[in-house]
Amino acid sequence: MPKKEVKSKEQLLETVLWNCRVALRTIGSLEKKRDAIISLCFLNFASVKFERRRKEIIEQYGDVPVFLEKVSFYNAENVYYLDEHCRWNYIVKNASADDIAVKIDKALADIEAKNPPLKGALPQQLFVSLNADKSAMKSLIDEVNKINEERFKEEDLIGRVYEYFLQNYAASGTKEDGEFYTPACVVELITELIEPFDGVVYDPCCGSGGMFVQSMRFVDEHKGNRKKVSVVGQESNPDTWRLAKMNLSIRGISCDLGEKNASTFTEDLHKDRKVRYIMANPPFNLKKWRGEDELIGDPRFKGWGAMPPVSNANYAWILHMLSKMDESNGIAGFLLANGALNAGAGGDDEGSENSEYIIRKQLLERDKVEAIIVLPRDMFYTTDISVTLWILNNNKKAHELNGRMLRDRTNEVLFVDLRRWDDNTEEYVLDKNKKKKKTVLSRKQIEKIRDLYFSWQSADRNLYKDVPEYCKAVTLEGENGIRANNYTLTPSKYIEFIDHDLDIDFPKEMARIQKEMKEVIEQEKQSQQLLIKAFEGIGYGIE
User: What are residue 429's phi and psi, to 5 degrees?
Assistant: First the structure.
C-alpha cells in the first residue's frame, strides 16, 4: 500500500509539471518556454526558503526589522533576500493583473540586484517578450503554485522539478539546445567512479550544472561533508550559463562559474587553476574551436608532439582537462564521441587527423588513461550514437583511497563495452502525440560497473577477471598490448568476442528451416487452388 501511495503522488506531480508546459504551448520559443517556467519555479522555491529563514531569524532575534531585513542574514545560509514584491505570494496575488509580466520581470531583476551571487543569473525582460495574454500567464502561475512541499512530500522537490524541465526540454530540442543537459544516469555513473568526496570539482563546459548537482548528491548519499567540496566551471552559451547559476543557486550549491559566459579555449576564466576532480560532457566533435593560427603557443597544448586540429576539439578538451588536473592525485571522468578512440590511427599520413594519433600515443605512453567505457547507444537527447566515458588518472600507483587499497596499475588500461546494455529504456512525453524513448542505466547497472572498476583497481587480484564481450584489462606492452595495436583505444580490439554461430547445431537448424519452407510452400499451393475455384465459380477459368 505505501508504494502505491508514493506512485500516485509522483503521477500527480508529473501532471502538474506537464500542465505548466501546456500553459505556454503556443507561446514563445522552446528556450523561452523553458526559461519562463524554470524562472517561476525559482521564484516559488526561493520564497519558500526565504520564509523558512525569516522564521528562524524571528525565533533567534525576535520580530526586529533591523535583523529581518538584513540581507547578509539570509545569504549566510545560501538563502536569497526577497523584497515584498519579489515574493511568490505577491506574484500569485497579482496573477490576473494586466501587467503581471512586468511585475515578474521586475521581481527577477530586483532579486538579482540585491543578491550578488545571482549576478547575471536571472533572465531580464523575459516575460514581457513572451507577449502572452494574462489568461495564459495566470494559468501558468496557478500550476506552478501547486508545486509545494505540503502537497508533494518529496525529499528533493526542487531537484525533481528542475530535473524534469531540464530533461524534457533537452529531449525536445535540437543538437545545440540539448547540449545543456547530460542524462542523469550517466552523470551518476561518473560520480560513482571518480568519487568526488573532497576538493574542487571542475567542469569546463558545465551546461546547466548537472555534474555539480550530482557531485553534491553523491556527497550527501555517502554521508560526506558538502563544505569540503567546491565547484568551479565555465560555459560558453550565455543562456545556459544563466541556467546553470540559477539551477545551482536554488539548490543551495555555491559555485564559481566565472563572472560571465566565455569559451574555455580562447578565454579560460580559471587560468592556472588545479583541481582534484573533473567531470565533463563536451560538445561532440566541436569544429572551429580556434582559428588556424590561434593558441599555437598555449601552454595547455605544448609538449604533446602535436596541436589538436581545428576541425575537431575532442583532443583539445582532453589536453585542457589534463592541464587542470592536480599532478599528484587528479582524476577526470568525461564523455567523447567514439571516433576519438581511434582518430588518426596509423600515424603516418600527413594532415589534421594525424595530430590526434600523436597526442593519443603520448597520453598512453605517459600513462594518463585509466579506463575506457563504451556506453549503450541512444542515451543522449541529441544523438543516437554510442559514446565513450574516459577516465584519466594522475595517480595509478598503489595507494589507499576512500578506505580501499589500490594496486599499481601503471601502463594498464581497463576496457569495458556496454553496447549490449540497451534493454532498459525511459519514455519522455514531448507533446500530446509525440514521445521519445531513451536508453538509461539502472541503479543496479551503475553499481555493477562501479564494482567492476573498483575490483580491477583493488590490491586483491582475485576480485577481477576479464569477461568476454564485457571487459578486459590491457597493458601497454606485450604481443596483444596497446602498443602492438597502434595505440587504438577501441575496446573491441581487445575484449574477446564469442562467435555465437559456433553454438548452433547446423544440421538440426537446417532441418527446421526446410520443414518450415515445405509448410509455407504447401500453404501457397492451397491458396492458389482456392483462388482458381473461386474464379471458376463466377465463370472465369485460370489456366
Answer: -85, 110
Mean pLDDT for 387-404 is 96
CA distance 91 to 137: 11
Measured CA angle at 417 (ends 411, 422), to 5 deg: 160
Q: Which residues pair with 278 in a beta bridge?
A: 202, 332
What span, in angstroms and rounded, lies between the C-alpha atoms of 150 and 217?
23
DSSP secondary-structure letter at 65?
H
Task: Give the orientation angle of helix 100-114 with respect to helix 134-145, to 10 degrees.
Answer: 50
In sequence order, what are the residues at sequence separation of 6 or more whose Cβ sits closer than 8 angstroms to the Cβ of residue 385?
Answer: 337, 338, 377
d(CA 90, CA 104): 10
Cβ–Cβ under 8 Å, residues 342 and 488 = yes
Cell reading at 543: 489456366
Give the tens place of pLDDT for each residue, 132-176.
999 999 999 999 999 988 888 766 788 888 888 888 877 776 555
Cα angle 536, 540, 541 (rounded to 5 degrees) comes to 70
- Rg of the chain in Å (alpha carbons): 28
Q: What is the DSSP letter of 373?
A: E
By the 8 A CB rule, do 181 and 381 touch?
yes
Kind and range of the H or E run holding 172: helix 157-172
Alpha-carbon span 197 to 146, nearest angstrom: 36
Instruction: State the pLDDT at residue 522.
Output: 79
The hierarchical CATH code for the domain 2-154 is 1.20.1260.30
Residue 387's H or E segment, with its range, is: strand 387-393
Alpha helices in 251-332 (DSSP H): 314-324
Integer Cα distance of 184 and 189 in angstroms: 9
- Pinpoint the alpha helices (H) of 262-392: 314-324, 352-365
C-alpha cell at 449: 560497473
Give the residue-averaged pLDDT of 370-386.
Answer: 88
Facing residues of 472 across strands? 415
Q: Which amino acid is at 541?
A: G
The DSSP bridge pattern shows strands 399-401 and 404-406 to be antiparallel
Q: How is the chain split into domains, by residue range? A: 2-154, 176-427+465-493, 501-543
- Name which of 333, 376, 89 is nearest 218 in CA terms: 333
Q: Which letter, b or e, does each residue of 334-369 get, where b requires 16 or more Cβ atoms within 10 Å of its Cβ? A: bbbbbbbbbbbbebeeeeebbbbbbbbbbbbeebbb
Assigned C-alpha cell, 537: 465459380
Task: Name the CATH superfamily for 176-427+465-493.
Answer: Vaccinia Virus protein VP39 (3.40.50.150)
d(CA 526, CA 522): 6
Supply φ then ψ for residue 430, to 5 degrees.
Answer: -90, -35
- Mean pLDDT, residues 425-441 taken together: 79
- DSSP annotation of 495: S
276: cell is 582534484
Element (H, E) at 438: strand 434-439
Q: What is the mean pLDDT of residues 460-469?
A: 97
Query: Is 331 in a helix, a strand, or coil?
Result: strand
